[in-house]
Amino acid sequence: MYVFHRADAMRRYLAACRSSLGFVPTMGALHEGHLQLVRHALRECELVVCSIFVNPTQFNDPDDLCKYPRTPDQDIAMLAKTGCHLAFMPAVEEVYPPGWQMPVALQLSPLDQVMEGKFRPGHFKGVAEVVYRLLELVEPQRLYMGQKDFQQTVIVQAMLQQTNLPVALRVADTVREDDGLAMSSRNRRLSPEQRQVAPYLYRALLEARRLYPELAVDEIQARAMALMQSAGLRPEYFDIVDGHTLQPVANGAKYDYVVACAAAWAGEVRLIDNVTLRC
Ligand code: AMP
Fold first, then answer.
1. Which residue's CA lies nearest to atom 19 of ligand 1?
2. Whose CA is nearest to atom 5 of ligand 1?
3. Would you name the residues annotated as active-site residues?
4. Which DSSP letter does residue 98 get?
5. Candidates 31, 34, 35, 145: which one to mutate for ligand 1, based on the most atoms within 8 Å of Cβ?
6. How far apart, in whole angstroms, are the C-alpha atoms of residue 138 and residue 4?
């Protein structure tokens, strides 16, 4: 495996094998969820690039940025073992050189006004811009992201359409621990007690899947919030949304794609997850 820290050196190498290039952007502290994306890309592409970049512009909470786990040596070893061809680990100045700006003003509303966007102002502007910038540097044909961050995939798809980038987005299923907790880099910050209650986020989502659409949406939400609270989580939201528009579903209306999305705190660690209720 090659490791590059400079975009110009990486770009010279990539020019040679550009015709079938898959790209997996991550913030590192890698786990099986990330590696599944790499494997997915390896099945479909000649060359697979994984970036590890903790993007400061998508953190609305400076404390969260500061505490975000960083395990670069372990990450490189995991990527090499998985067969990833290239790790791109740029510095902030390389991703955001002075004067760099988006070529088009993105219109993310109303997709970024709900759920994560409501609780993390500016987060999705940072995500859409960093993904655009990394795509500009790597120039892949395919981009691999996880269903775990469902709202993010919808927003990145909107960004791809608005910027006319010729990149196909592939979304891979959420990888979970045996007890259902979605794998996340932040999970390593959970205390043993918090780790015990963390799976209740997923249990609440499964309960919604069991109850939808027989029960009214607000009743399902109330039950899910209560389930998380009684387990010891501090839920932020539990929304049942149209998977295309991310807007809340109305009782009795017909939808072809419905997703339940939730965020909750286990101590100082913020967890998010989602399950598809209908597709
Ligand atoms: P992150 O490093 O958290 O920014 O995640 C990088 C990519 O990995 C994103 O596309 C995430 O959606 C994806 N990802 C993170 N956790 C999981 C998981 N448990 N299952 C599948 N994909 C994941």
1. 183
2. 26
3. 34
4. T
5. 34
6. 12
- Using omega within 30 degrees of 0 as the cis cutoff, is the peptide bond preceding 213 cis? yes
Report which protein residue has its CA nearest ligand 1's atom 18.
33
- pTM of the complete model: 0.94
Percent of the chain predicted with pLDDT > 90: 93
Amino acid at site 119: F
Structural domains of the chain sorted by starting position, each given as residue range(s) with its CATH number in brackets: 2-172 (3.40.50.620), 185-273 (3.30.1300.10)
DSSP-derived letter for residue 152 is: H
Nearest to 27 by CA among 107, 95, 118: 95
Question: In sequence order, what are the beta bridge partners of 51?
Answer: 25, 88
Asked if residue 154 has its Cβ within 6 Å of ligand 1, the reply is no
**How many CB atoms lie under 10 A from the CB of residue 103?**
8
161-199 b/e (C-beta count within 10 Å ≥ 16 → b): ebbebebebbbbebbbbeebbbbbbbbebbeeebbebbb
- Cβ of residue 150 lying under 6 Å from some atom of ligand 1: no
Q: Cβ distance 182 to 176 under 8 Å?
A: yes
Count of helix runs (H) and strand runs (E) in the chain: 11, 9
Nearest-angstrom CA–CA distance, 122 and 61: 11
pLDDT in tens, 115-157: 999 999 999 999 999 999 999 999 999 999 999 999 999 999 9
Count the Cβ atoms, other than its own, within 10 Å of residue 66.
8
Which strand (E) or helix (H) includes residue 219? helix 217-231
Task: Say if residues 131 and 163 touch (Cβ distance below 8 Å).
Answer: no
Tokens of 149: 């961050």
